[in-house]
Amino acid sequence: MKRIIGDVYNVKPYSLGHLDCSVYLIDTKTNDGLILIDPGLYIEPIINIKEYGYNPKNIRHCLITHGHLDHFGVCHELKKINNNISYYIHELDAEKVEQTSYDSYIENYYKGFEYRPIKITIKIQKDGENLRLGDYEIKCISIPGHTLGSIAYYLETENQKIIFGGDICGSALKLSGGNLVNYIKSMEKILEFDIDILCEGHLNVIKPAEKVMEFIQACMMMNEYVHIVLEEDPHNIEVLYNLTLLEYELGLYDNALDFCNYLIEINPDNLKAKELLKKIKRHNPPKFEFVKSYIEKFFSNQIYSK
Ligand SMILES: [Zn+2]
């Protein structure tokens, strides 16, 4: 656990090869106790807050940014620690948390993970809705794109504007409930807030304001490339290479590995790609082999739907 600013902490930093998300905590120092933002997949990092003088039983609120399992899979275990935690998510993503089964995309991605649903306490409906928790006012900004019900939680503390954005660096792919046009609009909306600190869903904390802006712009560009390669023109070598390079620069080494391998599969003589692959491999990313299977699935589905 690491303090970000004031009462705001990063409970579990991002680590390469782990599928769960970055977990954040706010200590309200009032009867509202501790707030978790995106509790993730595993209970251990949450139990470990004890080592920093916090009691997990004091967690009273759990804000979920969107309905992807890696952001809320641990909720049923949290209930065992304290049965009175209030769970928040946008109403359009609530079903994902409350349902007993998953679609094949999620099941493939999190093979072997046993999910048990929980009941959402508060389903956010309105863009800009304010949650008053302790002395904090947390604004729920609707940012559809990664999923239909994605939310960024916004607060101001110590003269800094902070956003818990969920998967800003995530994809806007149709297969996982995304939409590129919505995603771009949502990112432009976040940029208008002039955020000082971005608590990202997988890549931890990005600051100051200038870096946040650069990061969000890079994520927008990445998603435009991803859309071209995975949903329009999978053999576009130039876009594929630029995308791989951008993912490498953003530190998304597992995705970069996937795209680079695919690039070399299309053209085994691509020297630039081979050089880049060497650099990516230095970071020892795990192999997901998602790109090829997605392309095959997407294009065979398109043929069926014609
Ligand atoms: Zn996600």
CATH topology of the largest domain, by name, is Metallo-beta-lactamase, Chain A
CATH-derived architecture of the largest domain? 4-Layer Sandwich
Q: Tally the helices: what do you get?
A: 11
Strand content: 15-25%
Heterogens: zinc ion
Question: In a few lines, what is going on in this structure?
Answer:
By secondary structure, the chain is an alpha/beta fold. It has helices at 44-47, 69-72, 75-81, 91-98, 104-109, 180-191, 209-231, 237-250, 253-266, 271-281, 291-305; strands at 2-5, 8-12, 23-27, 34-37, 59-63, 86-90, 122-124, 129-133, 136-142, 151-157, 160-166, 197-200, 204-206. Bound molecules: zinc ion.
List the helices and strands and how they pair.
Blueprint: E1 2-5, E2 8-12, E3 23-27, E4 34-37, H1 44-47, E5 59-63, H2 69-72, H3 75-81, E6 86-90, H4 91-98, H5 104-109, E7 122-124, E8 129-133, E9 136-142, E10 151-157, E11 160-166, H6 180-191, E12 197-200, E13 204-206, H7 209-231, H8 237-250, H9 253-266, H10 271-281, H11 291-305
Parallel strand pairs: 4-5, 5-6, 6-7, 11-12
Antiparallel strand pairs: 1-2, 2-3, 3-4, 8-9, 9-10, 10-11, 12-13
The structure holds zinc ion (ZN).
What would your notes on this structure say?
The chain has 306 residues and is an alpha/beta fold. It folds into 2 domains: 2-222, 4-Layer Sandwich (Metallo-beta-lactamase, Chain A), CATH 3.60.15; 233-305, Tetratricopeptide repeat domain (Serine Threonine Protein Phosphatase 5, Tetratricopeptide repeat, Alpha Horseshoe). Helices cover 39% and strands 21% of the residues. The chain has helices at 44-47, 69-72, 75-81, 91-98, 104-109, 180-191, 209-231, 237-250, 253-266, 271-281, 291-305; strands spanning 2-5, 8-12, 23-27, 34-37, 59-63, 86-90, 122-124, 129-133, 136-142, 151-157, 160-166, 197-200, 204-206. A 7-stranded mixed sheet has the order 1-2-3-4-5-6-7. The chain has a 6-stranded mixed sheet with strand order 8-9-10-11-12-13. A hairpin with a 2-residue loop joins strand 10 and strand 11 (160-166). The chain is globular and about 65 Å long. The termini are far apart. 42% of the residues are buried. The chain binds zinc ion. Zinc ion is lined by residues 66, 68, 146, 167, 170.
